[in-house]
Amino acid sequence: xxxxxxxxxxxxxxxxxxxxxxxxxxxxxxxxxxxxxxxxxxxxxxxxxxxxxxxxxxxxxxxxxxxxxxxxxxxxxxxxxxxxxxxxxxxxxxxxxxxxxxxxxxxxxxxxxxxxxxxxxxxxxxxxxxxxxxxxxxxxxxxxxxxxxxxxxxxxxxxxxxxxxxxxxxxxxxxxxxxxxxxxxxxxxxxxxxxxxxxxxxxxxxxxxxxxxxxxxxxxxxxxxxxxxxxxxxxxxxxxxxxxxxxxxxxxxxxxxxxxxxxxxxxxxxxxxxxxxxxxxxxxxxxxxxxxxxxxxxxxxxxxxxxxxxxxxxxxxxxxxxxxxxxxxxxxxxxxxxxxxxxxxxxx
Length: 348
Hints:
This protein is of the alpha/beta class. It has twelve helices and eight strands. The strands form two sheets. The protein has a six-stranded mixed sheet with strand order 2-5-4-3-7-8, sandwiched between helices.
C-alpha cells in the first residue's frame, strides 16, 4: 500500500518540521548544496551587531550604498534568479519601498548564489530589467567574490533565500528572516518602537526550534531506514529490538513513527514471516491515542492489527471509521480493506 511509503515519509518530515509551518514561502537553498543543519545560528553576525558594509561587485540598479547612515533604515534582502520564492517576494519589497520612501528607508536586493560564469552578470542584469517597475529598489550584484554573502548570510548561519536583514537607525542588525514576514518588525523599527532585546530572544528560540527539527528529521530518517532494512532482510529480532527501544525513546510520542512500527509488521504486501502482533498492537494503539482517533491511516493500521489477531468485529469497526475520515487519495485503498474484512466476517 502506497500510503505507508512515500505518503508516510512526507507526513513524518512535515511533522518534524511543523515549527515552520507558518512561513508563507519556504526559502530555496543553494543550487549546489543542501542546508547545513550544523551551522551555528548567528555565529558571527547576530541581532544587535553592527551591520557590515556592502562591498558589491556591481550596483545594477539605484545609487550605490556602501555604508549605513545613522538615522536611516535599510533592508538588505538576498535573492537569486533561480529562486522561486525570491520572485514572489520581489513585488512585495517594491511595495514596501514605495510605502516608506519618505521615511528614510532604503531596500537593497543583493543577488547571490548564482552559477557563475562569463554570462552571469548579463543574466542577472536582464532579470532585473525584465522585472522593471516590479523591482523598484536598489539592486547589488555580489558576484564571484561572495563578499556580501560571507558578511551576512554565512556569518549569520543562513542557508536559504530569500532572507532579509533589517538595519535599524543605529546601524544595527535588528531583523533576520523571510522578507514576507518582516512587515510588522519593519514598521516598528521605522517608528522607533522595536524592542531589539525581545527580538533577540525570539530569534534564538526560532533557531533552536529549527535545530531541533533538523535533528528530529535525521532521527526519523535513520529509524525508518534501519527498521525497514531489518524487516526486509528478515532480521526480525533486530527489527523488533529497535522498535521496542524506539517505543521507550524520544520518538515514543511521534504517531507517525509508531504507525510505521505497526504497519511494517502487518502490511499484507510486505509478507513478514515473523509478526510480533503484540508489539504492533502497542504501537498502533498508542499512535491512535496520540491522534485522538482522527487519523484515517493510523486507524487503518490499527484495524489491520486487530484483523491479524483475529478480532474481525473490531477490525470492521475501526476500518469503517478510517474510511469515513479518509482523504480522497486514500479512500479507495481503505475501502478495499473494509471489503476484505466484511468478506472475512461473512457480512458480504
